[in-house]
Request: fold
Amino acid sequence: MKKAKTSFFCQHCGYMSPKWLGKCPSCGGWNCFAEEVIVNTGSDSRAEMRFDCKPMPIEAIPLEEGMRTVTGIAEIDRVLGGGIVNGSAVLIGGEPGIGKSTLMLQMMHNLAKAGQKVLYVSGEESASQIKLRSQRIGAAAKDLLVLVEVSLEKILEQIKNISPTIVVIDSIQTIYSADLMSAPGSIGQVREASSRLILFAKKFGIPVFLIGHVTKDGSIAGPKVLEHMVDTVLYFEGDSGHAYRIVRGIKNRFGPTNEIGVFEMQEKGLKEVHNPSAFFLSERPYNVPGSVVVPSLEGARPILVEIQALVSPSNLGMPRRTAIGVDHNRVSLLVAVLDKICSLHMGSSDIFINVAGGIRLSEPAVDLGVVAAMASSFLDKPVDARTVIFGEVGLTGEVRAVSQTETRIKEAARLGFERCVVPQASAASKIGAAKTEVITVSSLREMLENLF
Reply:
């Protein structure tokens, strides 16, 4: 018999090598290569998936507007950009047990109640397990069809016979194709199953939701090319110690990126949080040193969150620096600026930063809030509880402008805050916020003088 041809694939990014390598030259991962058999599937398995299109002038291409399906869950519609686009492929990743399957089942239930025929394909749970979850969350509709199958060919055959309007695959790592000899979940199987499902979605206009596992570092398992193949990538974030869950759009070809939807995990499933700012500030202490409220922009939505800081003298030779919810390196930079520019010597102190509620902030507009929280704790002087602070801090102590200042101020005024400390360069954006006192600052010294 002719020996099968094999190659080695990186289990993190999908890089192919003719021999085993200790370190992946593409992603830098160690001991991540696995040998897989390369099978030439020929044109039979993909012949029926071809589009059979011919080149045509761009002016002659018909424009399909408004072809979106509303899910009935406003937070999901917001992240998707207004609803589900026909023929789109959406990849959803998250930690095990965070609620991906529950959210998809709730969404499919809403669509089935609206008259849509939906198909939920499960490769991880039995039909009875899905039935138990549906009873708990109240998802029961005659047009919600459940298929327990892991064979890609049989799944595609059932989709053709049923002709559903939307398909959910839970999860893509459990699906395998008989054309490949490798095990389910391997790089080749994930790539093959995803590509054929996406081609099927594009050809017949059926939206497909792919649920994916995540690795230890939080990225979606499988080849990185999987995220490039789909139209939308959603990450399900949250902590088992908190009731909230966040769906964040990392990539979206049909809408804005970095948009978030906030949910609260309850006994009967996930419940939408229509006012995230009030939700994250519900347990905020008042007139306590080290507590500052900042408006962070998540996509197009401003969310008010509380930043807490604790600065205390250290007995260790190397003081501790702990940051939860913000970038650790950014905190170290701001501590150095406070030490050099404002003469607040925190080098011998332990510094702990926490974003209350467990949400993670990444934009530079929260710099000024982190600085104010650290200074408040170090000086043991509270910041006025009716004040919000935002702005980017430079290495020379200057306060730089941030985007959408007026939107942030309006959100603060809506929740009853009476004063906003903003960068001076953003003064032109404060129009329309007459109910809120706007204080502009150009440097850290000026900000500390206004607060303390």
